[in-house]
Amino acid sequence: METALEKRKLQRLGGSLFLSLPRNWLDQFSLKKGAEIFVSTDTEGRLILAPLQTQQREELDITLIFGPYLYRQLLTAYLRGITTIGILKKDGFSKAEREAVLNHTQGLMNTEIIEETSTKITLQQFSAEEVSLKMLVQRMFFLTHSMLLDLAIAKTKTDFENIKERDKTVGRFYMNIIMHLRAALTGRLLVKEYTLPEVLDLRLLILHLEQIGDQVKGLAYDALEGRKCKIEDLHFLAERYQRAFTSFVEHDVQTAERFWDTEKQDRRKLAYHEKLLRMYDHIKDITDLVI
Predict the structure, then answer these.
(1) 40 lies in the same domain as 88
(2) Averaged confidence pLDDT in the chain
(3) For an engineered disulfide with 244, which of 27, 40, 108, 286 has Cβ 3.0 to 4.6 Å away?
């Protein structure tokens, strides 16, 4: 909840300037002399203060009633950063209903079932502060890139089925990163790795990574039905994908600009296959975030 702005004057003590902090804020977080706090500034020059311990959330736990909209409710709680989620069914869970909860949980990264009774299942979500946002983005890239490389050498039904299953993990990374970004933008998490514009670029980046994973999964489906593409084109896209992601991470404008020089030629090369062309467009769009 936002409060009215309060004007305060800077005071001088010796050679330094200081500002007294609101008493109700100090009391809310039990802050005393010597307590440590985070200090940061945003892109508009505002000063942000937060206690060293995890910032208070709107709710730390929530109880949901098992029903047809459970996954949507779970997803909402997950994105809000709720740490403990209880799922209640007064007349008890059937085997199929327990399996449904387990399947929903597997779709949410860093979330585990920590307690079960006949009428209640409790989920625990690990704190977003414990995981590096940069690491999650890199792992999402490495996963989708390895799926593409493995598709080029896949031969058996098991190989293609494995690639399809790995796309579920891509989806979990995607939702986990979204949760981190929402926590950063709403002030529940202080992300020192990125500025606000970079956080917004990351949101677009992971959308492209997730879509690339979807295209690889689609190609695996096609291969199982006998519709295979050229292996050399998969290697070509894997190389372009690596270059595009590296250019984003390293802010390499020159490498990103080279995609403009070869775009027409590259698209002609892949024009025979719709999924390859879509994948190329997502790879190219990553470089647009650099320029």
Answers:
(1) no
(2) 83
(3) 286
